[in-house]
Design brief:
This protein has a single domain, classed as Gcn5-related N-acetyltransferase (GNAT) (Aminopeptidase, 3-Layer(aba) Sandwich), CATH 3.40.630.30. It is built from 8 helices and 7 strands, in the order βαααβββααβαββαα. The structure holds coenzyme A.
Length: about 180
């Protein structure tokens, strides 16, 4: 799998890569699950990307496989080794059954490259696909109740659990490998 996936920080994107990200983010299937579900304009996107260049607490990565843009993995509120993870996938990834592989690759990249010790997330309880996908990747519900008006569940995984459980889960690795084989290079 190595070399097939390319990870690019938003700060390094070309104009066309950045435009592709904005199109993917504005896909109704994606934005309906985001905190901000309205359509994002070009100027707003540009200034968001620019703001990331100076932000020590957030990182957004564009994930590409074999020349196709497949999705984004992000870390926000990075502090004391913990970060709030987030992701979305493109229509191409979803059609090719690559969503699990993209999120796996995104998380693995974040744990390796950015040295975080724990990734946590706030999962909407009605986002069934994301719930099951996060479950396959070893994220576990954890104690606190965020108490928001939308029903959210807090989930998390430590780097140690990621390496010990997820990376060495032979069933998961088989699923990932088979999807890669079916999709070719
Ligand atoms: C969430 C998201 C990544 C899921 O993508 P998707 O293409 O619908 O995902 P898939 O159907 O491939 O995977 C989800 C489901 O397949 C299962 N699955 C995925 N790959 C699998 C595999 N190789 N083998 C077995 N099961 C698999 C998951 O357990 C889950 O089960 P379900 O079919 O009962 O829902 C996508 O819908 C998305 O980008 N949504 C918008 C953003 C979002 O919701 N982000 C999450 C915020 S926490």
């Amino acid at each position: 799998m190595s070399g097939l996936y390319i990870f690019k920080n938003f700060a390094e994107l070309s104009e066309s890569e950045s435009a592709e990200v904005l199109r993917g983010r504005n896909d109704p299937e994606v934005r309906r699950w985001m905190t901000t579900d309205r359509v994002i304009g070009e100027e707003e996107h540009r200034s968001f990307v620019a703001s990331l260049r100076h932000s020590p607490s957030a990182v957004y990565i564009r994930i590409e496989r074999a020349g196709f843009f497949l999705g984004v993995y992000s870390l926000n509120d990075i502090q004391a080794g913990s970060a709030l993870g987030g992701f979305w996938t493109t229509e191409h990834a979803r059609r090719r059954m690559l969503a699990l592989n993209v999120v796996y690759q995104g998380m693995d990249h974040m744990f390796r490259r950015f040295g975080v010790d724990r990734i946590y997330g706030y999962q909407r309880v009605d986002n069934h696909s994301a719930l099951r996908l996060n479950g396959l990747l070893g994220l576990q519900p954890c104690c606190e109740d965020p108490g928001e008006e939308i029903q959210l569940r807090k989930i998390q995984i430590t780097r140690e659990q990621w390496q010990r459980r997820t990376v060495s889960d032979s069933r998961l690795q088989k699923l990932l490998r088979r999807t890669e084989e079916l999709n070719g290079e």
